[in-house]
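User: I'm curious whether this sequence folds into something compact or stays loose and floppy. Could you predict its structure so I can see for myself?
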Amino acid sequence: MIKKINILGVHFSNLDEPQLVALLDNRIAEAQKTQVCFVPTNSILAARKSRFVMDVYNSADVVMCDGVPVQLASRLLGTPLKQRLTGFDFFPHFIQHCVQKKYSIYFLGAKEGVAKQLAAMYQSRYPGIRVAGYCTPPFAAAFSEEQNAVMRSAINAAKPDVLFVSLTAPKQDIWIHQQLEHLNVKLAIGVGAAFDSEAGSLKRAPILMQQMGLEWFFRFLQEPGRMFRRYFIEAPIFVPLVMFQFLSTLFHKSNTAPHHN
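Assistant: Here's the prediction. I'll summarize afterward.
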């Protein structure tokens, strides 16, 4: 049983990367359909605004902490998460693991041409890698049922063990949640902009900035138009909400503690 930690209503899986990989190996071996989400601050806030999004995350098999603010919040609340693990970092690590385990993989998402480029790059880098296919859906806030049917058909024909989805969060997590029961896959993982990062069309922040928790600022400098609202309007709301949860927890503990006369 995975220990879950509640941050603003989203229940995070308290796993480090080796534990996550071992869990996914077991799920694949047992052919248990599994959804993995990497959840940053903006996705927690989206879940607070929408009961449906909250249900998407709290019904997912694994929900990992993707973001320094989320990890700091877990410490403040007295329930520290073992690791901050981004889709950016997990994706290339797990690709190597898939090569070793001979899992077949499928790439869905990113901009036109990126998934194809990624497949070619990995086939060159890892001889013997089992790339079952790739698909780039049209850019849309939500896909039509006809578009979903085309994607499902392509994925099911390929029958991959692992489906990687790069549609940004929470959109990718909602899509997997809605489609997984109709997909012939064992594991579906939303990895955000990891396709673009691996293909070289999106630059990662320098290691020092990543360690200092400033990767968000590097992303903002690269895509100011798209990231301004996320980082400067939505994200600041996160801190007072976490403080309120912290104070509520303290108040609850003080009220439930035994009183001695």
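Summary: The chain has one domain: 4-246. The chain has a mean pLDDT of 90.
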